[in-house]
From TrEMBL:
Pfam families: SBP_bac_3 (PF00497). Keywords: Membrane, Signal, Transmembrane, Transmembrane helix. The lineage of its organism: Bacteria, Pseudomonadati, Pseudomonadota, Alphaproteobacteria, Rhodospirillales. The chain crosses the membrane at residues 20-41. This is Solute-binding protein family 3/N-terminal domain-containing protein.
Length: 283
């Protein structure tokens, strides 16, 4: 049976529709659009980036939707690379790092650079500068001379996000020696609850993460005034980290990473990254 006869049986032909060689213009147009769509879909390479699920405001799950400042920046950056299509999968920090180290995922964001993570094969360019601080209760701060971190915090109890090493090696050496006690929870909100309940004296995290956690808990100004930054520990940069690929599952990794770095640098230099951060906190 020829194509024209087949179309007729399916009632594709409409009144006053012109046919060429037994095939309608409408069918030709439909097949052309479908063909072009398939070509475009095939041209895009899907990139899956794994991310933290509880690092508010930087990378987290908002219900079932990936959210956060890094998520916005990277989504915008990949949107400027027409050859790629981005998927973001959120997992707990420790699981994400384990998956990355074991070569089960191509990339994870936004861990900091650490000497002990020498198995990470490459990082993106620095994306955001984050300021790490120690937040303590006023009662603790007023009763101690706190000039040097962590030396002057001997005997203190701290909250910490599980898996995070923001407080530095000297701090964790004091923890191992029993000079500082440590309680760990998975989220900023949980650790802030420890602090506000008086369960710990201090909490170390990035400044914007602490502010976002307080906003999440709807902490009012009167309660917020009961806590103060007692030390600026340092600045950290967030990255996209690329792990080992022993089975060559991602042969396109370096090409993607190079292209992403180029766009991120353009966004940084134009002020676009700063604008995205300001817009995020304007909500």
């Amino acid at each position: 049976m020829d194509l024209g006869r087949f179309c007729h049986l399916l009632h594709i032909r409409k009144p006053h529709q012109r046919f060429i060689g037994g095939v309608s213009y409408a069918l030709i147009l439909s097949l052309t659009v479908l063909s072009v769509s398939i070509v475009h879909a095939q041209d895009k390479l899907q990139i899956t980036l794994y991310s933290e699920d509880n690092n508010i405001p930087y990378a987290f799950l908002d219900g079932a939707r990936p959210a956060g400042i890094y998520t916005r920046i990277l989504s915008e950056a990949v949107a400027r690379l027409p050859q790629y299509e981005l998927e973001i999968v959120n997992v707990p920090f420790r699981r994400g790092m384990d998956l990355l180290e074991n070569g089960e995922i191509m990339a994870f964001f936004p861990p900091y650079q650490r000497q002990e993570r020498d198995w990470i094969e490459r990082y993106s360019i620095p994306i955001l500068s984050e300021t790490v601080v120690a937040l303590c209760s006023n009662d603790y701060a007023r009763s101690h001379e706190l000039g040097i971190f962590p030396d002057d915090f001997k005997g203190a109890s701290f909250a910490n996000n599980a898996g995070y090493r923001l407080a530095g090696d000297d701090f964790f050496a004091m923890v191992d020696a029993g000079d500082i006690t440590l309680e760990e929870a998975n989220t900023t909100a949980s650790n802030l609850r420890f602090l506000m309940a008086g369960r710990v004296d201090c909490y170390v995290n990035e400044r914007m993460a602490i502010l976002a956690g307080m906003r999440e808990l709807d902490v009012d100004r009167d309660l917020a005034r009961l806590f103060n930054e007692t030390a600026i520990i340092g600045q950290e940069f967030g990255f996209v980290a690329y792990g080992p690929d022993p089975q060559n599952r991602w042969p396109y990794r370096d090409a993607f990473a190079d292209a992403l770095d180029t766009v991120l640098a353009e966004m940084r230099d134009s002020g676009e990254i700063d604008r995205l951060v300001v817009d995020y906190f304007a909500y």
